[in-house]
Amino acid sequence: MKIELFYSPVTCAMAPYINLTEAGADFEVHALNFRTNDHLSPEYRKINPKHKVPMLLVDGERLTETAAIHLWMTEAFTDAKLMPTDTLGKAQAISLLSWVSGGIHPYLSRINNPARVCDIEGTAKNVVEHASEYLYETFGLADEMLEGIDYLMGDYSASDAYFFWAIRRFTQFKLDLDRFPNVSAYYGRMQTRDSVQKLLTFERETIEEFKRAA
How many domains are there within the chain? Predict the structure, then answer.
């Protein structure tokens, strides 16, 4: 089976990279430089009209959307135990992935690029403030969820890689993680995993490669 991951540094494409590594998968990475609009190139649009990452090609077949990608991983690499195997547990794992995808990720995107939400002059500050307020509320919920456990479902699961990315973006936007001691401890714990260390090394190397090519 040939697995190709289309990825860009800093983006949520780090989540499938981490989980493919957790699964011990053999995969090839195609790194796209968003600063030079690689994702908008005719070549990439041809294979992915959504022109976003992450995307997988599995034996040439396209797979997009983080929850779907991780559901496929769970079925393809059962020994990795990226999700529970019972029906309710798997549904709860998908619920967590969907929560990060629909309940956290869009608000991080609003902070990153408020003009995509509202391009009326003078509104950017309000967009960022409202998104930040919502994220603080959401991270408060996560802090309660993580009380007394190491990972979102107790044991490591696919959703942890996606939430790790979300926390990282949260901190990159200078939001105050210290408000949430359980999330902060979890973030530190995630950074000690071999899969995350491998991802962070790959990200640094990719960014340096992009700089050299500029």
Answer: 2
For residue 28, give its domain range.
3-80+195-213
Each of the 214 residues of the chain gets a pLDDT tens digit; together they read 999 999 999 999 999 999 999 999 999 999 999 999 999 999 999 999 999 999 999 999 999 999 999 999 999 999 999 999 999 999 999 999 999 999 999 999 999 999 998 889 999 999 999 999 999 999 999 999 999 999 999 999 999 999 999 999 999 999 999 999 999 999 999 999 999 999 999 999 999 999 999 8
Q: Give how far the C-alpha of residue 132 lies from the chain's centroid of Cα atoms, to the nearest Å.
A: 18
CATH of residue 70:
3.40.30.10
The model scores a pTM over 0.85: yes
Give me the CATH number covering residue 164.
1.20.1050.10
Identify whether residues 130 and 200 lie together within a single domain.
no
Query: What is the layout of strands, in order, in the sheet containing 3-7?
Result: 28-31, 3-7, 55-58, 61-64
Q: Is the peptide bond before 54 cis (omega within 30 degrees of 0)?
A: yes
